Amino acid sequence: SMPGTKVELTVSCRNLLDMDTFSKSDPVVVLFVQLSGSNEWKEFGRTEVIDNTLNPDFVRKFVLDYYFEEKQNLRFDVSPGSQSVLFGAQDFLGQAFVALGEVIGSQRGRLERPLTGVPGKRCGTILLLAEELSNCRDIVTMQLCANKLDKKDFFGKSDPFLVFYRSNEDGTFTICHKTEVVKNTLNPVWQPFTIPVRALCNGDYDRTVKIDVYDWDRDGSHDFIGEFATSYRELSRAQSQFTVYEVGWWVKVRAGCTPCGTDPPLCLQVLNPRKKCKKKKYVNSGTVTLLSFSVESEFTFVDYIRGGTQLNFTVAIDFTASNGLPSQPTSLHYASPYQLSAYALALKAVGEIIQDYDSDKLFPAYGFGAKVPPDGKISHQFPLNNNVENPSCAGIEGVLESYLQSLRTVQLYGPTNFAPIINQVAGTAAQVTDGSQYHVLLIITDGVISDMLQTKEAIVTASSLPMSIIIVGVGPAEFEAMEELDGDEVRLSSRGRYAERDIVQFVPFRDYVDDSGNQVLSMARLAKDVLAEIPEQLLSYMKTRDIKPRRADPE
Predict the structure, then answer these.
(1) What is the β-pairing status of strands 362-368 and 310-318?
(2) CB of 92 closer than 8 Å to CB of 40
(3) Domains of the chain, first to last
(4) pTM for the complete prediction?
(5) CB distance 218 to 239 below 8 Å
(6) Signal peptide location in the record (predicted)?
(7) What is the pLDDT of residues 201-242, one digit of tens each?
Protein backbone atom coordinates (compact mmCIF):
# COMPACT_ATOMS: atom_id res chain seq x y z
CA SER A 1 0.00 0.00 0.00
CA MET A 2 1.01 3.61 -0.45
CA PRO A 3 2.40 5.28 2.68
CA GLY A 4 0.11 7.87 4.23
CA THR A 5 3.07 10.15 4.82
CA LYS A 6 6.74 10.21 5.79
CA VAL A 7 7.65 10.64 9.44
CA GLU A 8 10.97 11.81 10.80
CA LEU A 9 12.07 10.38 14.16
CA THR A 10 14.49 12.32 16.33
CA VAL A 11 16.21 10.33 19.10
CA SER A 12 17.65 11.38 22.45
CA CYS A 13 18.67 9.41 25.52
CA ARG A 14 18.89 10.34 29.17
CA ASN A 15 20.86 8.85 32.08
CA LEU A 16 22.50 6.06 30.11
CA LEU A 17 24.68 3.44 31.76
CA ASP A 18 28.30 4.49 32.07
CA MET A 19 30.35 1.61 30.68
CA ASP A 20 33.68 3.40 30.22
CA THR A 21 36.31 3.32 32.92
CA PHE A 22 38.00 6.68 32.42
CA SER A 23 35.21 8.62 30.66
CA LYS A 24 31.51 8.44 29.90
CA SER A 25 29.96 6.18 27.26
CA ASP A 26 30.10 6.98 23.52
CA PRO A 27 26.55 5.95 22.57
CA VAL A 28 24.95 5.14 19.23
CA VAL A 29 21.33 4.11 18.63
CA VAL A 30 20.52 1.41 16.07
CA LEU A 31 16.94 1.21 14.78
CA PHE A 32 15.45 -2.14 13.78
CA VAL A 33 12.04 -2.62 12.14
CA GLN A 34 10.02 -5.80 12.50
CA LEU A 35 9.14 -7.37 9.18
CA SER A 36 5.39 -7.63 8.62
CA GLY A 37 3.90 -10.93 9.77
CA SER A 38 7.11 -12.34 11.24
CA ASN A 39 9.33 -12.20 14.30
CA GLU A 40 12.35 -11.14 12.26
CA TRP A 41 13.98 -7.75 12.85
CA LYS A 42 15.88 -5.88 10.17
CA GLU A 43 18.30 -3.04 10.76
CA PHE A 44 16.87 0.21 9.35
CA GLY A 45 19.63 2.64 10.25
CA ARG A 46 21.71 4.15 13.03
CA THR A 47 22.52 7.50 14.51
CA GLU A 48 25.95 9.02 14.66
CA VAL A 49 28.22 8.25 17.63
CA ILE A 50 28.37 11.00 20.26
CA ASP A 51 31.48 10.86 22.38
CA ASN A 52 31.63 11.01 26.13
CA THR A 53 27.99 11.61 27.16
CA LEU A 54 25.21 9.86 29.03
CA ASN A 55 22.57 12.28 27.68
CA PRO A 56 22.98 12.33 23.90
CA ASP A 57 20.78 14.32 21.49
CA PHE A 58 21.39 12.72 18.11
CA VAL A 59 21.43 14.84 14.95
CA ARG A 60 20.94 12.03 12.45
CA LYS A 61 17.23 11.30 11.96
CA PHE A 62 15.26 8.25 10.91
CA VAL A 63 12.76 8.88 8.09
CA LEU A 64 10.08 6.18 7.89
CA ASP A 65 7.05 5.60 5.71
CA TYR A 66 4.02 5.72 7.99
CA TYR A 67 0.96 3.51 7.48
CA PHE A 68 -1.93 4.10 9.88
CA GLU A 69 -3.46 0.71 9.12
CA GLU A 70 -0.35 -1.31 10.03
CA LYS A 71 1.32 -2.09 13.32
CA GLN A 72 4.86 -0.84 12.66
CA ASN A 73 6.99 -2.27 15.45
CA LEU A 74 10.34 -0.61 16.09
CA ARG A 75 13.29 -1.63 18.27
CA PHE A 76 15.94 0.81 19.42
CA ASP A 77 19.24 -0.71 20.60
CA VAL A 78 21.72 1.54 22.40
CA SER A 79 25.37 0.54 22.48
CA PRO A 80 28.85 2.03 22.81
CA GLY A 81 29.73 3.43 19.41
CA SER A 82 33.12 1.76 19.24
CA GLN A 83 31.41 -1.64 19.01
CA SER A 84 29.71 -3.30 16.06
CA VAL A 85 25.98 -4.01 16.03
CA LEU A 86 26.77 -7.49 17.30
CA PHE A 87 28.08 -6.09 20.55
CA GLY A 88 28.36 -8.32 23.57
CA ALA A 89 26.07 -8.17 26.58
CA GLN A 90 28.78 -6.42 28.60
CA ASP A 91 28.77 -3.52 26.14
CA PHE A 92 24.98 -3.31 25.77
CA LEU A 93 23.43 -0.09 27.10
CA GLY A 94 19.75 -1.07 26.73
CA GLN A 95 16.89 -1.30 24.28
CA ALA A 96 13.29 -0.20 23.86
CA PHE A 97 10.37 -1.56 21.85
CA VAL A 98 7.71 0.80 20.53
CA ALA A 99 5.13 1.02 17.73
CA LEU A 100 5.44 3.99 15.38
CA GLY A 101 1.74 4.71 15.99
CA GLU A 102 2.45 5.07 19.71
CA VAL A 103 4.94 7.84 19.06
CA ILE A 104 2.65 9.70 16.66
CA GLY A 105 -0.35 9.22 18.96
CA SER A 106 1.47 10.50 22.06
CA GLN A 107 1.11 14.08 23.22
CA ARG A 108 2.90 16.46 20.82
CA GLY A 109 4.38 13.44 19.08
CA ARG A 110 6.83 12.89 21.96
CA LEU A 111 7.32 9.57 23.71
CA GLU A 112 9.71 8.63 26.51
CA ARG A 113 10.39 4.96 27.24
CA PRO A 114 12.66 3.26 29.77
CA LEU A 115 15.56 1.31 28.33
CA THR A 116 15.78 -2.29 29.50
CA GLY A 117 17.91 -5.36 28.91
CA VAL A 118 20.74 -5.09 31.42
CA PRO A 119 19.76 -7.23 34.44
CA GLY A 120 19.85 -5.47 37.77
CA LYS A 121 20.60 -2.02 36.37
CA ARG A 122 18.65 1.06 35.44
CA CYS A 123 19.49 1.79 31.83
CA GLY A 124 18.02 5.28 31.54
CA THR A 125 15.41 6.36 29.02
CA ILE A 126 15.04 6.97 25.29
CA LEU A 127 13.09 9.99 24.00
CA LEU A 128 11.47 9.89 20.57
CA LEU A 129 10.01 12.82 18.64
CA ALA A 130 7.90 12.15 15.53
CA GLU A 131 7.47 14.92 12.99
CA GLU A 132 5.70 14.61 9.68
CA LEU A 133 7.85 15.79 6.81
CA SER A 134 6.25 18.82 5.20
CA ASN A 135 6.86 17.71 1.62
CA CYS A 136 5.10 20.85 0.34
CA ARG A 137 1.53 19.93 1.19
CA ASP A 138 -0.13 23.01 -0.34
CA ILE A 139 -2.87 22.63 -2.93
CA VAL A 140 -3.35 25.16 -5.75
CA THR A 141 -6.66 26.04 -7.38
CA MET A 142 -6.35 27.94 -10.65
CA GLN A 143 -8.42 28.93 -13.68
CA LEU A 144 -7.22 29.86 -17.15
CA CYS A 145 -8.71 31.13 -20.39
CA ALA A 146 -7.27 31.76 -23.87
CA ASN A 147 -7.77 34.32 -26.60
CA LYS A 148 -7.35 34.19 -30.38
CA LEU A 149 -5.86 30.71 -30.55
CA ASP A 150 -4.92 29.27 -33.94
CA LYS A 151 -7.72 27.66 -35.94
CA LYS A 152 -6.85 23.99 -36.51
CA ASP A 153 -10.10 22.34 -37.64
CA PHE A 154 -11.00 22.52 -41.34
CA PHE A 155 -14.76 22.83 -40.86
CA GLY A 156 -14.78 24.50 -37.47
CA LYS A 157 -12.56 26.37 -35.07
CA SER A 158 -10.47 24.50 -32.50
CA ASP A 159 -11.25 22.26 -29.54
CA PRO A 160 -8.50 23.43 -27.18
CA PHE A 161 -7.17 21.89 -24.00
CA LEU A 162 -4.06 22.45 -21.85
CA VAL A 163 -1.39 19.99 -20.75
CA PHE A 164 0.84 20.87 -17.77
CA TYR A 165 4.33 19.44 -17.34
CA ARG A 166 6.76 19.79 -14.46
CA SER A 167 10.46 19.83 -15.27
CA ASN A 168 12.80 17.19 -13.87
CA GLU A 169 16.37 17.50 -12.67
CA ASP A 170 17.67 15.97 -15.92
CA GLY A 171 15.87 18.48 -18.14
CA THR A 172 13.02 16.17 -19.11
CA PHE A 173 9.36 16.88 -18.42
CA THR A 174 6.66 14.86 -16.64
CA ILE A 175 2.97 15.41 -17.33
CA CYS A 176 1.07 16.45 -14.24
CA HIS A 177 -2.33 17.74 -15.38
CA LYS A 178 -4.72 17.97 -18.32
CA THR A 179 -7.66 20.34 -18.51
CA GLU A 180 -10.97 19.41 -20.06
CA VAL A 181 -11.58 20.06 -23.79
CA VAL A 182 -13.60 23.16 -24.68
CA LYS A 183 -15.29 22.49 -28.01
CA ASN A 184 -15.33 24.70 -31.12
CA THR A 185 -13.83 27.95 -29.89
CA LEU A 186 -10.68 30.02 -30.23
CA ASN A 187 -11.41 31.78 -26.93
CA PRO A 188 -11.90 28.96 -24.39
CA VAL A 189 -12.50 29.38 -20.67
CA TRP A 190 -11.46 26.26 -18.75
CA GLN A 191 -13.01 25.17 -15.47
CA PRO A 192 -11.06 25.83 -12.26
CA PHE A 193 -8.99 22.84 -11.15
CA THR A 194 -6.86 21.88 -8.17
CA ILE A 195 -3.41 20.32 -8.13
CA PRO A 196 -0.91 19.66 -5.31
CA VAL A 197 2.10 21.97 -5.41
CA ARG A 198 4.38 18.94 -5.13
CA ALA A 199 2.86 17.58 -8.34
CA LEU A 200 3.33 20.89 -10.12
CA CYS A 201 6.92 21.68 -9.19
CA ASN A 202 8.21 19.17 -6.59
CA GLY A 203 8.23 22.00 -4.07
CA ASP A 204 10.77 24.05 -6.08
CA TYR A 205 8.95 27.33 -6.72
CA ASP A 206 11.39 28.43 -9.43
CA ARG A 207 11.42 25.20 -11.43
CA THR A 208 10.07 25.46 -14.96
CA VAL A 209 6.44 24.54 -15.56
CA LYS A 210 5.67 23.98 -19.26
CA ILE A 211 2.13 24.32 -20.57
CA ASP A 212 1.18 23.03 -24.02
CA VAL A 213 -1.98 24.02 -25.87
CA TYR A 214 -3.55 21.41 -28.13
CA ASP A 215 -6.52 21.10 -30.45
CA TRP A 216 -8.38 17.91 -29.59
CA ASP A 217 -8.96 15.35 -32.37
CA ARG A 218 -11.18 12.31 -31.96
CA ASP A 219 -8.51 9.94 -33.30
CA GLY A 220 -6.00 11.05 -30.66
CA SER A 221 -3.67 12.86 -33.08
CA HIS A 222 -4.16 16.18 -31.34
CA ASP A 223 -2.81 19.24 -33.17
CA PHE A 224 -0.18 21.29 -31.39
CA ILE A 225 -1.24 24.96 -31.09
CA GLY A 226 1.60 26.33 -29.00
CA GLU A 227 3.31 26.43 -25.65
CA PHE A 228 4.57 28.72 -22.95
CA ALA A 229 6.76 28.36 -19.89
CA THR A 230 6.34 29.71 -16.39
CA SER A 231 7.05 28.71 -12.77
CA TYR A 232 5.05 28.28 -9.60
CA ARG A 233 6.41 31.57 -8.29
CA GLU A 234 5.30 33.41 -11.43
CA LEU A 235 1.89 31.71 -11.43
CA SER A 236 1.34 32.74 -7.82
CA ARG A 237 1.47 36.42 -8.78
CA ALA A 238 -2.00 35.95 -10.27
CA GLN A 239 -3.31 36.08 -6.69
CA SER A 240 -3.20 39.85 -7.06
CA GLN A 241 -3.38 40.40 -10.84
CA PHE A 242 -4.16 38.69 -14.13
CA THR A 243 -1.16 37.19 -15.89
CA VAL A 244 -1.14 36.94 -19.68
CA TYR A 245 1.14 34.47 -21.48
CA GLU A 246 1.97 34.52 -25.16
CA VAL A 247 1.43 31.11 -26.76
CA GLY A 248 3.66 30.18 -29.66
CA TRP A 249 6.28 27.91 -31.09
CA TRP A 250 9.57 27.92 -32.97
CA VAL A 251 9.54 26.72 -36.58
CA LYS A 252 11.93 24.05 -37.79
CA VAL A 253 11.41 22.42 -41.19
CA ARG A 254 14.84 21.30 -42.28
CA ALA A 255 17.71 19.45 -40.63
CA GLY A 256 20.29 21.67 -39.08
CA CYS A 257 17.93 24.62 -38.63
CA THR A 258 18.68 26.45 -35.40
CA PRO A 259 15.73 28.24 -33.82
CA CYS A 260 16.37 31.95 -33.42
CA GLY A 261 15.75 34.31 -30.56
CA THR A 262 15.69 33.87 -26.82
CA ASP A 263 12.12 34.88 -26.06
CA PRO A 264 10.14 32.99 -24.82
CA PRO A 265 12.65 31.23 -22.56
CA LEU A 266 11.61 27.73 -23.59
CA CYS A 267 12.18 26.40 -27.10
CA LEU A 268 11.59 22.76 -28.07
CA GLN A 269 12.22 23.20 -31.84
CA VAL A 270 8.69 22.12 -32.73
CA LEU A 271 8.29 20.61 -36.17
CA ASN A 272 5.21 21.81 -38.06
CA PRO A 273 5.44 21.67 -41.87
CA ARG A 274 2.37 23.89 -42.28
CA LYS A 275 4.51 26.89 -41.37
CA LYS A 276 7.41 28.19 -43.40
CA CYS A 277 10.69 28.81 -41.66
CA LYS A 278 11.36 32.51 -41.25
CA LYS A 279 14.58 33.32 -39.47
CA LYS A 280 14.34 35.33 -36.25
CA LYS A 281 10.60 34.85 -36.37
CA TYR A 282 8.60 33.45 -33.46
CA VAL A 283 5.16 32.24 -34.51
CA ASN A 284 2.43 33.49 -32.19
CA SER A 285 -0.60 31.25 -31.68
CA GLY A 286 -2.66 33.39 -29.28
CA THR A 287 -2.56 34.11 -25.58
CA VAL A 288 -3.46 32.31 -22.35
CA THR A 289 -4.58 34.29 -19.30
CA LEU A 290 -4.37 33.07 -15.73
CA LEU A 291 -7.63 34.33 -14.26
CA SER A 292 -7.25 33.14 -10.67
CA PHE A 293 -4.75 31.36 -8.45
CA SER A 294 -5.25 30.43 -4.79
CA VAL A 295 -3.34 28.22 -2.36
CA GLU A 296 -4.64 26.14 0.55
CA SER A 297 -2.83 23.87 2.94
CA GLU A 298 -3.58 20.15 2.61
CA PHE A 299 -3.90 18.78 6.11
CA THR A 300 -3.09 15.16 6.84
CA PHE A 301 -4.25 12.57 9.34
CA VAL A 302 -1.03 13.09 11.29
CA ASP A 303 -1.74 16.85 11.55
CA TYR A 304 -4.99 16.14 13.37
CA ILE A 305 -3.56 13.44 15.64
CA ARG A 306 -0.64 15.66 16.61
CA GLY A 307 -3.09 18.52 17.12
CA GLY A 308 -4.85 16.46 19.79
CA THR A 309 -7.64 14.63 17.97
CA GLN A 310 -8.42 11.46 19.90
CA LEU A 311 -9.68 8.23 18.31
CA ASN A 312 -12.34 6.66 20.53
CA PHE A 313 -12.72 2.94 19.88
CA THR A 314 -16.00 1.09 20.63
CA VAL A 315 -16.55 -2.65 20.14
CA ALA A 316 -19.82 -4.45 19.41
CA ILE A 317 -19.87 -8.27 19.26
CA ASP A 318 -22.58 -10.53 17.84
CA PHE A 319 -24.06 -12.88 20.48
CA THR A 320 -26.84 -14.33 18.32
CA ALA A 321 -27.60 -18.06 18.41
CA SER A 322 -26.49 -18.59 14.80
CA ASN A 323 -22.89 -18.50 16.08
CA GLY A 324 -23.39 -21.87 17.77
CA LEU A 325 -22.89 -22.88 21.39
CA PRO A 326 -19.59 -21.38 22.60
CA SER A 327 -18.68 -24.68 24.28
CA GLN A 328 -18.79 -26.57 20.97
CA PRO A 329 -15.76 -26.63 18.61
CA THR A 330 -18.08 -25.79 15.69
CA SER A 331 -19.06 -22.46 17.27
CA LEU A 332 -17.56 -19.24 15.95
CA HIS A 333 -17.15 -18.19 19.59
CA TYR A 334 -15.24 -21.37 20.50
CA ALA A 335 -11.73 -20.79 21.78
CA SER A 336 -9.47 -23.79 22.12
CA PRO A 337 -6.52 -23.86 24.53
CA TYR A 338 -4.31 -23.30 21.51
CA GLN A 339 -6.15 -20.70 19.45
CA LEU A 340 -8.44 -17.71 19.93
CA SER A 341 -11.88 -17.62 18.31
CA ALA A 342 -12.44 -15.72 15.07
CA TYR A 343 -14.14 -12.98 17.10
CA ALA A 344 -11.19 -12.62 19.46
CA LEU A 345 -8.67 -12.67 16.60
CA ALA A 346 -10.47 -9.89 14.71
CA LEU A 347 -10.86 -7.81 17.86
CA LYS A 348 -7.20 -8.18 18.78
CA ALA A 349 -5.91 -7.44 15.25
CA VAL A 350 -7.83 -4.18 14.86
CA GLY A 351 -7.82 -3.06 18.48
CA GLU A 352 -4.08 -3.30 19.01
CA ILE A 353 -3.53 -0.67 16.32
CA ILE A 354 -6.41 1.62 17.29
CA GLN A 355 -5.39 1.69 20.96
CA ASP A 356 -2.15 3.51 20.15
CA TYR A 357 -4.23 6.60 19.28
CA ASP A 358 -6.45 6.59 22.37
CA SER A 359 -4.83 8.32 25.33
CA ASP A 360 -6.82 6.67 28.14
CA LYS A 361 -6.90 3.17 26.55
CA LEU A 362 -10.46 2.71 27.85
CA PHE A 363 -12.80 1.09 25.31
CA PRO A 364 -16.59 0.77 25.63
CA ALA A 365 -17.49 -2.80 24.64
CA TYR A 366 -20.97 -4.16 23.97
CA GLY A 367 -22.72 -7.31 22.89
CA PHE A 368 -25.95 -7.63 20.92
CA GLY A 369 -28.54 -10.31 20.20
CA ALA A 370 -28.43 -12.16 23.54
CA LYS A 371 -30.69 -12.75 26.54
CA VAL A 372 -28.92 -11.19 29.50
CA PRO A 373 -29.28 -11.81 33.25
CA PRO A 374 -30.97 -11.37 35.58
CA ASP A 375 -34.34 -11.31 33.77
CA GLY A 376 -33.33 -12.91 30.48
CA LYS A 377 -34.48 -10.00 28.30
CA ILE A 378 -33.07 -9.68 24.78
CA SER A 379 -30.56 -6.83 24.51
CA HIS A 380 -28.87 -5.30 21.49
CA GLN A 381 -26.38 -3.18 23.42
CA PHE A 382 -25.44 -4.79 26.72
CA PRO A 383 -22.03 -3.91 28.26
CA LEU A 384 -19.60 -6.80 28.17
CA ASN A 385 -18.29 -5.86 31.62
CA ASN A 386 -21.88 -5.87 33.00
CA ASN A 387 -21.49 -2.23 34.10
CA VAL A 388 -24.19 -0.09 32.51
CA GLU A 389 -22.84 3.11 34.08
CA ASN A 390 -19.29 2.52 32.83
CA PRO A 391 -19.04 0.02 29.95
CA SER A 392 -15.37 0.80 29.27
CA CYS A 393 -12.72 -1.90 29.49
CA ALA A 394 -9.04 -1.32 30.19
CA GLY A 395 -7.18 -1.93 26.94
CA ILE A 396 -7.81 -4.61 24.35
CA GLU A 397 -6.93 -7.30 26.87
CA GLY A 398 -9.69 -5.95 29.13
CA VAL A 399 -12.18 -6.15 26.24
CA LEU A 400 -11.15 -9.74 25.51
CA GLU A 401 -11.50 -10.69 29.17
CA SER A 402 -15.01 -9.16 29.39
CA TYR A 403 -16.02 -10.81 26.11
CA LEU A 404 -15.03 -14.26 27.38
CA GLN A 405 -16.81 -13.62 30.68
CA SER A 406 -20.03 -12.62 28.83
CA LEU A 407 -19.97 -15.87 26.86
CA ARG A 408 -20.32 -17.69 30.18
CA THR A 409 -23.19 -15.55 31.52
CA VAL A 410 -25.53 -14.67 28.63
CA GLN A 411 -27.73 -16.83 26.40
CA LEU A 412 -27.07 -16.49 22.68
CA TYR A 413 -30.32 -15.64 20.94
CA GLY A 414 -31.25 -13.07 18.28
CA PRO A 415 -32.10 -11.21 16.08
CA THR A 416 -29.08 -9.48 14.50
CA ASN A 417 -29.80 -5.77 14.96
CA PHE A 418 -27.11 -3.17 14.22
CA ALA A 419 -29.11 0.05 14.52
CA PRO A 420 -29.21 0.30 18.35
CA ILE A 421 -25.42 0.23 18.81
CA ILE A 422 -24.80 2.49 15.80
CA ASN A 423 -27.29 5.02 17.18
CA GLN A 424 -25.69 4.82 20.62
CA VAL A 425 -22.19 5.60 19.33
CA ALA A 426 -23.63 8.27 17.02
CA GLY A 427 -25.27 9.91 20.03
CA THR A 428 -21.90 10.06 21.78
CA ALA A 429 -20.17 11.38 18.64
CA ALA A 430 -22.82 14.11 18.29
CA GLN A 431 -21.86 15.55 21.68
CA VAL A 432 -18.42 16.72 20.47
CA THR A 433 -18.19 17.75 16.81
CA ASP A 434 -15.30 20.24 16.93
CA GLY A 435 -12.71 17.74 15.63
CA SER A 436 -11.16 16.94 19.00
CA GLN A 437 -12.87 13.51 19.11
CA TYR A 438 -13.39 10.91 16.38
CA HIS A 439 -15.18 7.62 17.02
CA VAL A 440 -14.49 4.23 15.44
CA LEU A 441 -17.10 1.48 15.95
CA LEU A 442 -15.98 -2.10 15.31
CA ILE A 443 -18.86 -4.53 14.73
CA ILE A 444 -18.01 -8.24 14.53
CA THR A 445 -20.89 -10.38 13.29
CA ASP A 446 -21.69 -13.73 11.71
CA GLY A 447 -24.98 -13.20 9.94
CA VAL A 448 -27.51 -11.34 7.89
CA ILE A 449 -28.79 -8.10 9.39
CA SER A 450 -32.35 -8.31 10.70
CA ASP A 451 -32.96 -4.54 10.83
CA MET A 452 -31.52 -3.50 7.46
CA LEU A 453 -33.81 -0.47 6.94
CA GLN A 454 -33.12 0.89 10.43
CA THR A 455 -29.39 0.23 10.02
CA LYS A 456 -29.25 2.15 6.74
CA GLU A 457 -31.09 5.05 8.36
CA ALA A 458 -28.67 4.99 11.31
CA ILE A 459 -25.62 5.01 9.03
CA VAL A 460 -26.96 7.85 6.86
CA THR A 461 -27.51 9.90 10.01
CA ALA A 462 -24.10 8.98 11.42
CA SER A 463 -22.35 9.97 8.16
CA SER A 464 -22.57 13.62 9.19
CA LEU A 465 -20.87 12.91 12.53
CA PRO A 466 -17.22 12.33 13.48
CA MET A 467 -17.32 8.54 13.31
CA SER A 468 -16.48 5.53 11.18
CA ILE A 469 -17.84 1.98 11.26
CA ILE A 470 -15.82 -1.18 10.66
CA ILE A 471 -17.73 -4.42 10.09
CA VAL A 472 -15.91 -7.77 10.18
CA GLY A 473 -18.02 -10.70 9.01
CA VAL A 474 -17.03 -14.07 10.49
CA GLY A 475 -18.21 -17.50 9.43
CA PRO A 476 -19.45 -18.94 6.11
CA ALA A 477 -22.55 -16.74 5.60
CA GLU A 478 -23.09 -14.60 2.55
CA PHE A 479 -22.68 -10.91 3.26
CA GLU A 480 -24.31 -9.13 0.30
CA ALA A 481 -26.10 -6.69 2.61
CA MET A 482 -22.78 -5.68 4.16
CA GLU A 483 -21.41 -4.77 0.75
CA GLU A 484 -24.38 -2.42 0.29
CA LEU A 485 -23.62 -0.75 3.63
CA ASP A 486 -19.97 -0.34 2.61
CA GLY A 487 -21.02 2.16 -0.05
CA ASP A 488 -17.85 1.92 -2.14
CA GLU A 489 -19.78 1.37 -5.38
CA VAL A 490 -23.10 3.13 -4.71
CA ARG A 491 -23.58 5.78 -2.05
CA LEU A 492 -25.81 4.51 0.74
CA SER A 493 -29.26 6.09 0.98
CA SER A 494 -32.32 5.82 3.21
CA ARG A 495 -35.77 7.27 2.59
CA GLY A 496 -34.48 9.69 -0.02
CA ARG A 497 -31.48 10.84 2.04
CA TYR A 498 -27.96 10.04 0.91
CA ALA A 499 -25.01 9.44 3.21
CA GLU A 500 -22.91 12.57 3.48
CA ARG A 501 -19.72 10.49 3.55
CA ASP A 502 -18.74 6.86 3.11
CA ILE A 503 -18.09 5.82 6.72
CA VAL A 504 -18.43 2.01 6.53
CA GLN A 505 -15.70 -0.50 5.74
CA PHE A 506 -16.65 -4.19 5.54
CA VAL A 507 -14.38 -7.22 5.21
CA PRO A 508 -15.15 -10.95 5.50
CA PHE A 509 -12.86 -12.64 8.02
CA ARG A 510 -12.58 -15.79 5.90
CA ASP A 511 -10.59 -13.87 3.27
CA TYR A 512 -7.78 -13.55 5.82
CA VAL A 513 -7.45 -17.14 6.95
CA ASP A 514 -3.97 -18.09 5.78
CA ASP A 515 -3.73 -21.67 4.51
CA SER A 516 -0.14 -21.78 5.70
CA GLY A 517 -1.29 -21.29 9.27
CA ASN A 518 0.58 -18.00 9.69
CA GLN A 519 -1.93 -16.37 12.02
CA VAL A 520 0.24 -13.31 12.69
CA LEU A 521 0.49 -12.47 9.00
CA SER A 522 -3.23 -13.11 8.44
CA MET A 523 -4.28 -10.76 11.24
CA ALA A 524 -1.82 -8.09 10.08
CA ARG A 525 -3.47 -8.19 6.64
CA LEU A 526 -6.92 -8.00 8.21
CA ALA A 527 -6.03 -4.95 10.31
CA LYS A 528 -4.39 -3.29 7.34
CA ASP A 529 -7.46 -3.62 5.13
CA VAL A 530 -10.13 -2.67 7.67
CA LEU A 531 -8.21 0.37 8.92
CA ALA A 532 -6.92 1.65 5.58
CA GLU A 533 -9.91 3.95 5.02
CA ILE A 534 -10.02 5.51 8.52
CA PRO A 535 -7.53 8.35 7.84
CA GLU A 536 -9.40 9.45 4.69
CA GLN A 537 -12.76 9.17 6.45
CA LEU A 538 -11.49 11.34 9.30
CA LEU A 539 -10.10 13.88 6.81
CA SER A 540 -13.37 13.96 4.87
CA TYR A 541 -15.26 14.85 8.06
CA MET A 542 -12.80 17.60 8.96
CA LYS A 543 -12.87 19.02 5.44
CA THR A 544 -16.66 19.10 5.15
CA ARG A 545 -16.79 20.96 8.48
CA ASP A 546 -13.81 23.22 7.63
CA ILE A 547 -12.08 22.06 10.82
CA LYS A 548 -8.36 22.74 10.82
CA PRO A 549 -5.90 20.88 13.07
CA ARG A 550 -5.12 22.49 16.36
CA ARG A 551 -1.55 23.54 16.86
CA ALA A 552 0.33 21.27 19.21
CA ASP A 553 0.64 22.73 22.70
CA PRO A 554 3.90 24.63 23.25
CA GLU A 555 6.61 23.06 25.34
Answers:
(1) parallel
(2) no
(3) 5-133 (2.60.40.150), 138-297 (2.60.40.150), 302-545 (3.40.50.410)
(4) 0.63
(5) no
(6) none
(7) 877 888 899 999 999 888 777 889 999 999 998 998 876 778
